[in-house]
Design brief:
Ribosomal Protein S8, Chain: A, domain 1, 234 residues, RNA-binding, four-stranded mixed sheet, single chain, Exosome_RNA_bind1/RRP40/RRP4, RNA binding, globular, OB fold (Dihydrolipoamide Acetyltransferase, E2P)
Length: 234
């Protein structure tokens, strides 16, 4: 990992390169040049990439989510907009969700979402000069793939860095909690986590654990989380 500053060029190259928050690929005149166009940082922070170096992003201490294509988010329906809805995803501007952006949706058969409904969606379009757009299906298979309305459960807010940690399959917290009691969870990269359990005390335990593991709340490691859990009535 390395620290980057706005305007600094980063060595992000891959056949299937995907850029996350904090990075921008400069435009080129031809498609051939576009593949090798330089990538620069648009904000200061720690430069990160996936194991195969296909995904790159800058991890900063930003409190506000900046949408990027293909990222999973949790949002709240705030109102109707034509044939779709307006959604608050914690960004500078509300996102739009079309009524047909669901598995099997047609003009006559669309989901019935109300103001206040929670949804788990993927960012399909994100541009600095346009409002972000969402979809509730896998773009390749057009199957729901876990996206859609989130019913019941509880939503908590965490740091953007914590949400990225929870989305890492190798992170210990959710598997550790899942070994103690049944749970369902959906993590939005916009710092929102939805959890559903059979008992209220289990939901409280999840919230408390996420709070103490969050880098903004102490950054507790696995060993200490196990000790912490042993003190809780679960």
């Amino acid at each position: 990992m390395s620290i980057v500053l706005p305007g600094e060029q980063v060595p992000a190259q891959h056949v299937n390169l995907k850029l996350g928050p904090g990075l921008l690929q400069l435009s080129s005149e031809t498609q051939q040049q576009a593949k090798s166009a330089p990538v620069i940082a648009t904000r200061s922070g720690v430069l990160n990439h996936s194991a195969n170096k296909s995904k790159w992003w800058v991890e900063g201490n930003s409190r506000r989510y900046v949408p990027a294509p293909q990222e999973s988010v949790i949002g709240v329906i705030t109102g109707r907009s034509g044939e779709g809805w307006r959604v608050d995803i914690g960004a500078a501007h509300p996102a739009s969700l079309d009524g047909l952006a669901f598995e099997g949706a047609t003009k006559r058969n669309k989901p019935s979402l109300k103001v206040g409904s929670l949804i788990y969606a993927r960012v399909s379009l994100a541009h600095k000069d346009m409002e972000p757009e969402l979809e509730c299906f896998d773009a390749q298979t057009h199957k729901a793939d876990g996206f859609g309305e989130l019913k019941d459960g509880f939503v908590l807010q965490c740091s953007l860095q914590m949400s990225r940690l929870l989305l890492d399959p190798k992170h210990f917290l959710l598997p550790l909690l899942g070994s103690r009691f049944p749970l369902e969870a959906a993590v939005g990269i916009n710092g929102k986590v939805w959890v559903s359990t059979k008992e209220t005390k289990h939901t409280i335990a999840i919230v408390r654990c996420i709070e103490v593991v969050d880098p903004d709340g102490g950054g507790m490691d696995e060993t200490n989380v196990k000790k912490f859990l042993s003190k809780l009535d679960i």
